[in-house]
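User: For my dataset I need records formatted as: sequence, then structure tokens, nothing else. Please produce one.
Assistant:
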Amino acid sequence: MITKIITAILLIALPVLGKCQQDTLGGYKLVWADEFNKYGAPNPDNWAFESGFVRNNEDQWYQEQNAICRHGKLIIEAQRVHLINPGYVPNSTNWKQKRQFINYTSSSINTRGKHSFQYGRFIMRGRISTDAGLWPAFWTLGIEKPWPANGEIDIMEYYQSKLLANIACGTAVPYKAKWYSNTKALHTFKANWSKKFHTWRMDWDATAISLYVDDSLLNRIELKDLVNQDGTQFNPFMQPHYILLNLAIGSDNGGDASATKFPKRFEVDYVRVYQKK
């Protein structure tokens, strides 16, 4: 009986102790997280949705119903469909309007206007599909100025058989970014790597941004090298950033998804942000 009582106490205490260790990991304190433990749509206090065709000439139509929380995970599911584009305009030169049909649907969620952070340790544990044409991402954007002068950090990005860790700032040409990128080919990982969950991390402070996968450094850039090259001397990484999670399809980067079997998923166990005092 005593043994059972001690075992029960340990089962309760160990998760709490683990959480306390995470809260103070490396001098960092947990300041925000979404564990996706509530069944249903992502928490509207944390996340907003993008809608329709959004960027990069991508093939997917973003919509809310492709994101759901289930069994303690966020599931963003891409589906192959054949639907009428409600924004279709015959003879339009606008890429969003000239498409008569929607061939894929997916979801993109973000914390814009809800939660933003300047500096800290950003962690996402997730599992990504690595089939042709898929483009999952965990990334941040600065809250001020248009892209890319607002700054972009791609903590996790995957397409065309490689992981990417990218940082972008502005140039003298509007909407043209200066990229600091590094890649790691999928074949350099162990077999069945994409079938498992992995942890992506950003450590960002007033001196540098470092990007990791499973504690392996992929990219590191000092902030002094990330000033916008437009004469303003504005550094987009000395401002708060908000978080995005999405699963894109196709475009020049994502590649051809026509031979891929759908649906495909980007599964997120949690997103956490830690900061030092």
